[in-house]
Amino acid sequence: MKKINYVIGGGFLKDASYAYYFHELFLEYENKFGDAESIIVSINEDFYPFSTSKRNINFSEDGKLVNITFNANRYQDKKGKFTVKPSPDEVFISLRFVMDTAVSEYSKKFPSCIM
User: Fold this and answer.
1) 34 phi-psi bin (left φ>0, alpha ψ -120 to 50, beta other)
2) Does residue 70 register a pLDDT over 70?
3) pLDDT of residue 42
4) Looking at residue 53, what is its pLDDT?
5) Residue of 17, 15, 81, 94 lying closest to 53 (CA atoms)
6) Taking the CB of residue 104, how many other CB atoms lie within 10 A of it?
7) pTM to 2 decimal places
8) Which of 8, 11, 66, 75 can pair with 45 through a Cys bridge, CB separation 3.0 to 4.6 Å?
9) What is the DSSP string of the chain?
């Protein structure tokens, strides 16, 4: 079984209501990346409207390395301050979508590596 290493960049995503579920979520995906030897997921807080892409998925040429970046956005309140956090459910629905997309893209790019 390949272990998914994940890094939480900080902010609200380190709150227990979010961080508690990351481990369980990634356990579901550990065997879905075929011959990958290293799977790294970076989870970052971003600020809308200054946010970059919500996801970034990269594979090494041989499929041994998988890098996934996921950004969750804080939003502005009525006073213009970035205080509105997405709910844990919103974060996990989005993160699950990114992980499903990564698995799908990996299996298309490296069909012979999938078990």
Assistant:
1) left
2) yes
3) 94
4) 53
5) 94
6) 12
7) 0.85
8) 11
9) -PPEEEEE-SGGGGSHHHHHHHHHHHHTTTTSSTT-SEEEEEEEEEETTS---SEEEEE-TTS-EEEEEEEEEEEE-TTS-EEEPPPHHHHHHHHHHHHHHHHHHHHHH-GGG--
